[in-house]
């Protein structure tokens, strides 16, 4: 049986694309194994779907000064030797890496054991872990066409991002049943990221009386961010986090307000959901969400509202514009080749595996 090691961790965004690939890999005869950190978010997510999981030591790679910069290299070195041992034990034909600090020792170990590696880069510019891994990889999968200019010529492949199959199984009527909504007004879904967004939550709640004149609102506000003082409002429902019901809630949503993480916006593109993107500002990130959002804006997929300009007036203007131009946004999304990347990535995995036999 063909064996593949998936790796990626630190955030859900470095794990869910791997999870999206697993059903197809198994269907095509691959035995799937996962290498992540000892206790990262990836451990729980992977063990929930009964994939063999191996933990290794992982240190953070930083562009800024921190006292841990003197100790974390030792963690990475330890992780490297652990990864070498694991890869020797599994003896895979392929490693697929989604990014995150834990992947660096795995990629280096795969190179030592002569196992080909494919890296997937979700954002326009590669993160630090992927930058380190790129010289050792056979191919680099990209979500955005702009990424190809940031990787060695001939290594980059525009594949799109892999999307979880269950997101396509949503049923609109189930979404209405879950929320108690009806067909009288369109539905607005607001997603502030897995931890929520204080700024987005704050502006939405200040604006909600006016928004409810035009929309019914599903607000996924993040763990610990439900505000009981708003639970009495008709047409407004709050969730800390949604898992199983997300596909049905997306199915009943007419437009979406979201952060601009690559996986999330790729899912909105695949589902053809008109959207407003509010990217994380560069003051609290490396600016990748701003680049992602502007790329989607330039392609006619999204309306972009930067957090610094987010207020009651700008939010209402954005909602009105996106809703009334929703057909145009949907048409643009229908005409792109950047849809579900599962097929493209599986094809590339099979090609490289066959070439290395």
List keywords for this structure.
alpha/beta; Rossmann fold; seven-stranded parallel beta sheet; six-stranded parallel beta sheet; 13 helices; 13 strands; UDP-N-acetyl-D-glucosamine:N-acetylmuramoyl-L-alanyl-D-glutamyl-meso-2,6-diaminopimelyl-D-alanyl-D-alanine-diphosphoundecaprenol 4-beta-N-acetylglucosaminlytransferase activity
Structure overview:
- By secondary structure, this protein is of the alpha/beta class.
- Helix content is 39%, strand content 16%.
- The strands form 2 sheets. The protein has a 7-stranded parallel sheet with strand order 3-2-1-4-5-6-7, with helices on both faces. The chain has a 6-stranded parallel sheet with strand order 10-9-8-11-12-13, sandwiched between helices.
- The relative contact order is 0.12.
- The chain is elongated, with a radius of gyration of 21 Å.
- Pfam families: Glyco_tran_28_C, Glyco_transf_28.
- Its main location: membrane.
- Belongs to the glycosyltransferase 28 family. MurG subfamily.
């Amino acid at each position: 049986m063909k064996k593949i090691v998936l790796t990626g961790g630190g955030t859900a965004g470095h794990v869910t694309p791997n999870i999206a690939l697993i059903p197809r890999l198994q269907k095509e005869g691959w035995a799937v194994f996962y290498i992540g950190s000892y206790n990262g978010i990836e451990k729980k997510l992977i063990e929930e779907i009964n994939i063999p999981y191996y933990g290794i030591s992982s240190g953070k790679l930083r562009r800024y000064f921190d006292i841990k910069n003197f100790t974390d290299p030792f963690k990475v070195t330890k992780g490297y030797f652990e990864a070498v041992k694991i890869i020797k034990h599994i003896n895979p034909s392929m490693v697929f890496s989604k990014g995150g600090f834990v992947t660096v020792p795995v990629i280096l170990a795969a190179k030592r054991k002569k196992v080909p590696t494919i890296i997937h880069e979700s954002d326009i510019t590669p993160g630090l872990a992927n930058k380190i891994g790129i010289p050792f990889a056979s191919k680099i999968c990209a979500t955005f066409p702009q990424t190809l200019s940031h990787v060695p010529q001939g290594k980059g492949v525009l594949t799109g991002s892999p999307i979880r199959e269950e997101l396509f199984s949503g049923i609109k009527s189930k979404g209405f049943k879950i929320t108690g909504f009806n067909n009288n007004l369109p539905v607005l879904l607001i997603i502030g990221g897995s931890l929520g967004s204080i700024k987005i939550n704050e502006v939405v709640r200040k604006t909600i009386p006016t928004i409810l004149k035009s929309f019914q609102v599903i607000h996924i506000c993040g763990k610990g961010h439900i505000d009981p003082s708003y639970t009495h409002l008709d047409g407004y429902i709050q969730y800390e986090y949604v898992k199983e019901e997300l596909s049905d809630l997306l199915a009943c949503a007419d437009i979406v307000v979201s952060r601009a993480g690559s996986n999330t916006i790729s899912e909105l593109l695949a589902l053809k959901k008109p959207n407003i993107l509010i990217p994380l500002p560069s003051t609290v990130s490396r600016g990748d969400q701003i680049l992602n959002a502007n790329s989607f804006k330039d392609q006619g997929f999204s309306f972009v509202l930067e957090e610094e300009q987010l207020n009651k007036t700008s939010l209402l203007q954005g909602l009105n514009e996106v809703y009334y131009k929703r057909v145009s946004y949907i048409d643009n999304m229908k005409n792109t080749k950047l849809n579900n990347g599962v097929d493209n990535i599986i094809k590339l995995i099979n090609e490289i595996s066959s070439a290395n036999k």
